[in-house]
Design a protein that fits this description.
With about 350 residues, this protein is of the alpha/beta class. The protein has eleven helices and ten strands. The chain starts with 12 loop residues before the first strand and ends with a helix.
Length: about 350
């Protein structure tokens, strides 16, 4: 499908609250910076909700204190509306699917799902982002994963809520876009679609933070890698219906100065997960991923929905972002958004 510049002019803009400052940064300051740069919506990050709740109640609010979180969520809703913004999505809901029947992990996942749905009601959003599980305990059958997500989709559907399923490129069973798309098709619910992400796609299929080159190293070299990646993007463009893409998240990645250890760290987090946590800048700001190519592939499906900036920018070494001027950063993010759409459009 052609990508005309005029068709991109109405694409709504979004910014993730976890992508500016730290969880300790006052939420009102984050929202002012996001709104001031011209963004129309936010992804509300659960860490920001927890931090805001703890400050408002003068105590440490636990992740499963849903009564308090729902009360505070109503205050967040008012704050967001005051800034002229919309809460597009609550994120990131993780490690829901794949638990063994009757396990404590499965019971915990259902408790969390029920609580997060209550928060969605209170805060006024209709979409939940669900990342593909990275638990080593998850069972690997796509049919099994899909059956769990059917259960979550039905819980959400009772409130007219949607589930945006995202491939996390360090996931244990569904790290690529085609994996989560296969699962979404198996789930076969009208309120389940995809959260696609330029980092998760390029960072999983094209780049590798554990190699000196920063690329996946396989037989045939860089030329074969590029050909395979282009084929994957072409399949994406031709096979995913536009209405099954709920949101596209945008970020780049720095090439690590030193290749990351290929083994999981002490917490069990795989190298791409560690890379994701602090080495994801804005497009055109020092990264090396083919962000424009991924964006083009998504837009060629006909998708013209929310484009959301979701970065985790610790600078090239992952540790030196001081966030002294959040307003300047969000304005830079808007410039990057506009440039990305310009470069993604057909000549």
């Amino acid at each position: 499908m052609a990508i005309s510049q005029s068709s991109l002019s109405s694409i709504p803009t979004c910014y993730a609250t976890v992508s500016i400052g730290t969880p300790d940064t006052p939420l009102d300051q984050k929202l002012e910076a996001i709104a001031g740069a011209g963004f129309q919506g936010i992804e509300l990050g659960f860490p920001d909700l927890l931090s805001f709740a703890s400050k408002q109640r003068n105590k440490e609010v636990k992740p499963q204190d849903f009564d308090t979180l729902c009360d505070v969520a109503q205050e967040v809703k008012q704050l967001v509306e005051k800034n002229g913004l919309k809460i597009v999505m609550l994120q990131p809901f993780s490690n829901f699917e794949g638990w063994e029947e009757g396990s404590e992990g499965r019971e915990d996942a259902l408790r969390r799902a029920t609580g997060w749905i209550r928060i969605m009601q209170a805060v006024g959003t209709d979409m939940l982002q669900v990342g593909s599980t990275d638990s080593p305990h998850a069972l690997g059958s796509l049919d099994y994963l899909a059956s769990d997500l059917q259960q979550l989709a039905d819980l959400l559907a009772a409130h007219n809520f949607r589930l945006a399923y995202e491939n996390w490129c360090w996931a244990t069973h569904a790290p690529d876009w085609i994996d989560v798309w296969e699962i979404v098709k198996k789930v076969d619910r009208p309120n389940v679609g995809l959260c696609l992400d330029t980092f998760q796609t390029a960072g999983g299929e094209w780049a590798d933070p554990t190699t000196t080159s920063g690329l996946i190293e396989r037989e045939g070299g860089a030329e074969a890698l590029q050909s395979q990646f282009e084929t994957s993007l072409d399949i994406m463009s031709r096979t995913i219906p536009k209405e099954k893409i709920y949101i596209l998240q945008i970020s780049d990645a720095y090439k690590p100065k030193k290749p990351l250890d290929p083994e999981p760290d002490e917490s069990g987090l795989r190298p791409r997960g560690r890379w994701s946590s602090c080495l994801r800048p804005l497009p055109f700001d020092g990264g090396y991923l083919p962000v424009v190519d991924v964006t083009k592939a998504v837009l060629r499906t006909g998708f013209r929905g929310w484009l959301s900036t979701e970065v985790f920018d610790g600078g090239p070494d992952g540790s030196n972002q001081d966030w002294k001027d959040m307003k300047a950063y969000t304005k830079k993010a808007m410039v990057a958004h506009e440039r990305l759409l310009k470069e993604a459009a057909d000549p």
